[in-house]
Amino acid sequence: MAYLDFLSAIHKSTTRDYLARVNEYPKAQAAALAKNWDLDYWDGSRHTGYGGYKYDGRWRPVAEALAAHYKLASGSRVLDVGCGKGFLLYELMQVVPGLELCGIDVSTYAIENSKPEVRPYLLTGTAARLPFEADSFDLVISITTLHNLYCFELFDALQEIERVSRKDKYICVESYRNESEKVNLLYWQLTCEMFCTPEEWQWWFDRTGYTGDHSFIYFE
Prior knowledge:
Layout: H1 8-12, H2 18-23, H3 27-34, H4 39-43, H5 60-69, E1 77-81, H6 87-95, E2 100-105, H7 108-112, E3 122-124, E4 137-143, H8 151-164, E5 165-174, H9 179-188, H10 198-208, E6 213-217
């Protein structure tokens, strides 16, 4: 297991007003709307989610880094758990032609509004019960998804990711290292259920037998 940072550049490119997040719109109402994983979350107001999650090419550097580090080649099988609209999978398709791609997400809306080029490879489902045989994929990734699960679902999801991967695994989750980052995370998040320090995340990895790579994003 290694700590590999593929995501912080994208995460830090967004400017966040943490106080506005909790003062300009009822936070409980915003979270309730976001957790429907529907239009409000993906393409509605910024108060309830992304404020319009459109393809803009930002995932290309991540795809290039993943492909290079994990030595992906034509015929490699890749699963994205929590794929959203499939933008990262689309970039992987461009970077390494011939990949066998699959994505799964709890949001029917996201899949119905995904990148058309990858839509045939996406399905609705939960990370806690992956509908694939053991050792099905060369690389399983999950980007900013697993912290949205309750602890009992997280336990199953980590074991499921381990089960369906025959080689490499990489996940990125939200975390905090101090009280300032904890407060910012609490202010900003809409869907997070697992509020864990890096040490607590490591406990979960050890507890579930997760052997893949990982990284954290922090709200500094």
